[in-house]
Amino acid sequence: MQHGYQPGFDPRGIAQNYITSSGMPFQQRMNALFAAADIQRDGFLSVTEVQRSFAQGASAVSISIEASKSLMRLFDSPNAPGQGVIDQSEFIMLNAFVESLRMVYANYAGNISAPAMNAQSMQPALASLGLVLTPVSVQNLVRIFASSNPTVVTYLQFLEICIHTALCLSLHTRFAGGSERASLSADQMLAFSLFFK
Fold first, then answer.
1. Which of 32, 61, 103, 195 has the smallest CB count inside 10 Å?
2. Which conformational region is residue 11 in: left (phi greater than 0), alpha (psi within -120 to 50 degrees), or beta?
3. pTM above 0.85?
4. How confident is the model at residue 49 (pLDDT cuts 50, 70, 90)?
């Protein structure tokens, strides 16, 4: 079994699949949410506007400012990265990714209000997103991101794990020159990045 970077673990692809399957009602809700969150009415959202939109929107979750910034990095346009804002289409993609993760968590944890997901449940959950990691890597993710119980994670912690992993693997692929062959495997790169968590 191959571990590490998997071509299927693509946050933009996951988001696009969710948008396609959800249709217009989702896009209309996100358009309304974007309009409500765009306080400056400039067609862009800052990190604080994105964070606020999660608490007030359909997700009704309290995502940290760091997680909001990381999500924005994942969906920021490759043509103009790092401007600290996202446009409406990027906002829709970002929310579609979060909703996809919500569905995966609910499917593998039992439901979205389940108190926690353990490493044994998280491994197939991540694999369903196209990410296959060794059991040791998954256990390390759970241990590092879990707060009160180092053997299980909540939905928000699962969300942060997926964001962290997506950013880490994005860097891995960039340094590997788009190839899966690099001096560090994706598992090793992920393990190394956890030292800085």
1. 195
2. alpha
3. no
4. very high
